[in-house]
Structure formats: structure tokens, C-alpha cells
Amino acid sequence: MYYNQSRSGVFKGMNPRVTTVSILIMVLAVIAGAFHTDRLSSVLGTMRDFLTPFLEWYYVLVVAFLLFYMIWLGVGRYKNVRLGRDNEQPEFAFFSWIAMLFAAGTGVGILFWAVAQPIMQFQGNPFVAEGMSPEAAQVAMRLTFFHWGMNGWAIFSFVALVLAYFAYRKDMPLTIRSGVQPLLGKYTDGPVGDTVDILAAFATVFGIATTLGLGVQQMNAGIAQVFGLDVTLWLQLTVTFGIMAVATLSVVSGVKKGVRLLSELNFWLSIAVVVFLLLMGPTQYLVAMTLESAGAYIGNLFTMTFYTNATHDDGWQSEWTVFFWGWWLAWSPFVGMFIARVSRGRTFREFVMGVLLVPTIITMIWIGLFGGTALYQELFGDGGVSEAVNEDVARALFVTIEGMGLGIVGVIVSFGLIVLIGTYLVTSANAGTLVINTILSGGDPEPPTFHRILWGGILAVLTAVLLVAGGLETLQSAVIMAALPFSVVILGMSVGLTRSLHQERFAARMGARIEAPREPWADLDDAGNEPTPVSPDQRYKQN
């Protein structure tokens, strides 16, 4: 059974209360952006400025906690707990699994930032005395790895693991409120549980809209670079609605068809681009810079995780870490639920190793090659990437390819990158639409087709409104604000998972197997009666 799912009417197959409130919130946001554009941008900016001093340490603590919590789950006493029945096998093969979680997780983002962020950090950051130097280049790569590495993936993997655990092992609906059921108890089915799902839907919508907005801006920059067209808002809006139309058609076909095939196509295209850069770029420098930066990232991970800008007043922490942690948090309901849907049958250890480490390694290779190529051009070549970033950050990727001096081959590669951005946008949009509807349907993994189409349209319109309202700055402010309330839900989910894990078997001393006492909320039978008392001695079962 799913939470409060309607059986008739326009909300058939959906939770009427959660769906109605969510639609109203999105409609109000669209109206505010369409008819009060300047005011919306101003309000979001003011809210961001007001909350920044708090978020500079609060988001740091939340993300640090999730990182260490996930490591404990992967190597601690619950590492052999399976996301499903004890003998259940994974639903998807390893390659398909990694391709889907990577494409949905960071595909669009690293295409946008893989060049732009290293170059912007190269120009200046709080950790080097002088920008645009070889030392600044290495620190820039290390900082970029940090914002795209294990800390961010800890957020995604935590939400995904909680959802998969309660859905596949506890047979609960696949939605956010299931993760706090041990904490809320009977209130999970009522208004409190509805509020949790509404906050998740709110964060998801703005997280996806931000990603789509960034990707559309980059596609526009690529089209302008390759075909000589102007960068215009109308072209961006056209691309937005075109992407969402394709994404909506894809999401109707479901995960095992449209989403999986698109994810694998993205993955192969990405590999082709990476091989091209490695072979045609400054190979020795790229390998050396990637390895050196990876070592610096690992060596400084603990210090960077707890960096809070206490001794600097330069805005770096707010512009970078607060934005990225807010973006990862806002996107975590979407990516977490999507990863949960494709992770059934894996153990905690397999899951943590796969979701926390593999995408991080792939991301570092990707950023090392793209960002390293741009840094090489700035340090040893003709430059030009820094100037392009200062003019329009979305142009950075394509100016870097042009700077490789490959003539028509470079044009072909740039066109291929435009296609790759488009396919990543479609993958993120269709997976996001499916996840939003899964939340609004009370956890139904196959929500009604009509509502999938409806929310595809809502996402397109909201993305367009945010682009009109001010572009990158407004997108960043919106996602940071959307993440804040959901971060509280995430902390509640950690309490819920910890309480539920007390029921799992774990290795005991003296060769015995102990089953921990069950929490009171889990001990009631189907009729709501108390169970027969069990003595402590009966909890021990000899092997």
C-alpha cells in the first residue's frame, strides 16, 4: 500500500494533499517569477545574504556528518545488510548501475563546471597567495575535486541507502517519509508525513530546475561557438522546452527502457570524449596533474571538510562550498530515490563502495582531463579560457576545445559535447520527473502517466522562469534556499535509519549471533497488539 493514494478522480494514483500543495507552491513560484521577475531575484538574493553566515558552518557540519556516517555503514557491523531479502541478487548489472547513477547524479553539473571551476579557482582562492600561478593551478584542481568528490556523493548515497533499505528490506513505500517512519511512528501517514514529502518535492523541483538552467546556458554557449549564433534568452527557452519534451516522452517509457538506454548512451559518449582529450591533449601533463591533485585532495580531505571560512571574509565559502552543498542537498531526494530504484539487492558495503567511491574516481578523471587541459592552455599555451570565463562562464568548455587548435576536428568534438549535454539534460529531467511523481504518489514506482507529463511541463516552465529572473545568480540562490528545510529532513532520516538498524543481526562475541532488541514502534503486530515478551537469553542464537 502507498501513502494516502487516491483511487479515483483527477488525483487517481496520487496523494491528493501532497500533490495539491506541491502544485500550488510551484504555480506561485512561476507567477512570482513571470510577473515579478526583479522582485523574485531580489528576494532570493536577500535571503541568501541573510542566511550565509549560518549556512557557512551548518552545511559543513551536515555534510561532514553524512560522510562519516556513510563510511561507518560501509565498513561497520552492518556492512553485510542487504537492500532486500538476505539472498536477493542485484537487479541491474554493475555497468548499467554505475552508468545510471552517474548520469543522473552529476552528468550535467560536471560538464558545466569541469573547466569553469578550475579556471575560476585558478584566478584566485583563499589558499594561495597569488593566483594564475602553477601553485594556484594545483590548488584549484584540489578544490574542484573536493566540491565534486566524496562529500557530495555522501549526501546522495545516504538518501539513496535509507530509501532502498526501508523500501526493499522493510517493504515500505519508496518515498521520503518512509525514512523517518521510525521517528514519526503513526504520524507518518498524516499531515506530518505529508509535510516531509512536500519538502522533498520542493527541494527536488528547484534542484532539477537549477541543473537544467545551467545545462541550457551551456548548450546555448556551445551552439553560439559552433554555429556562430548569438547567446540569447529566447534560444535558451527554446532549448529548455525541447529538452523537457524529449524527457517527458522518455520518462513515460519507464526506468528499464528509456532511462537505462539513455544513461548507457551518455556513459559511452563520455568515455569517447575522455579518450579523445587524453590522446589529443597534453597527455603527460594531464596524467601528472590529475594524480598530483588527487593525492592533494586525499591528503587535505579532513581539513577541507571542516573549513568554515572563519579567518577570511572574501565570500569564497558562500560562493562555492555553500552553493555546492546546497545544490547536492536539494538534488538528493531526486538522485537518492533514483539510485535507490536501481540498487535493489546490493549490500551496504557494495552500495557504499559503488556510490561513494566509483563516481568520485570517475569525476576526478573527468575534471582532471577537462580542467587540466584548460589550465595547461593558461600556463603554457595561448590562454583565453580565463577571459572567456569572465565574460560568460558557460563558454569555458567550448573555448577550451577551440584552444586545442584541432581545426575541424575541434568543431566536431564541440558538436559532440553539445549532444552530450543534451542527452545528460534529458536523462536528468526524465529521471527527476519520475522521482517527483513517485514522491507525490505516496511511493508508487509507476506513477500515472498524466502526472508524469504534467510535472514535465511544470519543470520546463519553472526552469524558464528562473532563467528569465536572472540566470546563474538566481539559480544559485534558489537551490541554496530550497536545500535548507530538506536538510532537517535528512537529519531525521539518519535517526530513523539508526533506530531501525538495531533490529538487524550483527556479529557478537564468543561465536554467538545476537539479534538486537526491536524498537517499540516496530513490535506491534498487524492488529496493533503488543508482542509476547522475550527474555534477554532468548535473543542469543548459537551458530
From TrEMBL:
<comment type="similarity">
    <text>Belongs to the BCCT transporter (TC 2.A.15) family.</text>
</comment>
<feature type="transmembrane region" description="Helical">
    <location>
        <begin position="196"/>
        <end position="214"/>
    </location>
</feature>
<keyword id="KW-1003">Cell membrane</keyword>
<feature type="transmembrane region" description="Helical">
    <location>
        <begin position="21"/>
        <end position="37"/>
    </location>
</feature>
<feature type="transmembrane region" description="Helical">
    <location>
        <begin position="267"/>
        <end position="287"/>
    </location>
</feature>
<feature type="region of interest" description="Disordered">
    <location>
        <begin position="519"/>
        <end position="543"/>
    </location>
</feature>
<feature type="transmembrane region" description="Helical">
    <location>
        <begin position="322"/>
        <end position="340"/>
    </location>
</feature>
<dbReference type="Pfam" id="PF02028">
    <property type="entry name" value="BCCT"/>
</dbReference>
<dbReference type="InterPro" id="IPR000060">
    <property type="entry name" value="BCCT_transptr"/>
</dbReference>
<keyword id="KW-0813">Transport</keyword>
<feature type="transmembrane region" description="Helical">
    <location>
        <begin position="57"/>
        <end position="75"/>
    </location>
</feature>
<keyword id="KW-0472">Membrane</keyword>
<feature type="transmembrane region" description="Helical">
    <location>
        <begin position="95"/>
        <end position="116"/>
    </location>
</feature>
<feature type="transmembrane region" description="Helical">
    <location>
        <begin position="150"/>
        <end position="168"/>
    </location>
</feature>
<keyword id="KW-0812">Transmembrane</keyword>
<feature type="transmembrane region" description="Helical">
    <location>
        <begin position="234"/>
        <end position="255"/>
    </location>
</feature>
<feature type="transmembrane region" description="Helical">
    <location>
        <begin position="352"/>
        <end position="376"/>
    </location>
</feature>
<feature type="transmembrane region" description="Helical">
    <location>
        <begin position="453"/>
        <end position="472"/>
    </location>
</feature>
<keyword id="KW-1133">Transmembrane helix</keyword>
<feature type="transmembrane region" description="Helical">
    <location>
        <begin position="478"/>
        <end position="497"/>
    </location>
</feature>
<feature type="transmembrane region" description="Helical">
    <location>
        <begin position="396"/>
        <end position="426"/>
    </location>
</feature>
<protein>
    <submittedName>
        <fullName>Choline/glycine/proline betaine transport protein</fullName>
    </submittedName>
</protein>
